Amino acid sequence: MTEYPRPRLRVALITFDDEGRVLLLQHERIHGKYWVLPGGGVDTGESIEDALVREIREELSVDCDVEKLVAVGELILPDRHVVDFFLAGTLSDTQNFEILHEEGISDAQWFEPSQLDTISVLPPEILEVIKGMEGLKTGPITYLGKYRIPNRS
Question: Which of 7, 22, 25, 109, by CA, is between 20 and 30 Å from 99?
């Protein structure tokens, strides 16, 4: 039986501006560039909502209001197990945020849902959830399941 490490909890914010665009952050890593929702890890003893508020402050220097949990997904590999919680919410300022976190974040941009298929978004499973949201209105929580690992060529 394969022994996996303990799951790591992560949070991500799905937020839209007044024009219906979603905010994504570009990460640059050894294996390439890709876009993700803003967010990060949950610290021990921290709620997922508190973690998301902290991560948004750390990454963008703005506050956020968390509305609701909209999706959950998992990355399961032999060397890691990550459980992602995707929450809908709003930023206190959609115009005047700045990238403060130095962990490989190179850009922050607002994207029309129709543009999402033209960029590399991780995890790709979250795209349909984002496209199906009308502002913060969405249906029941979506379980994304175990993520497919895209080829990194």
Answer: 7
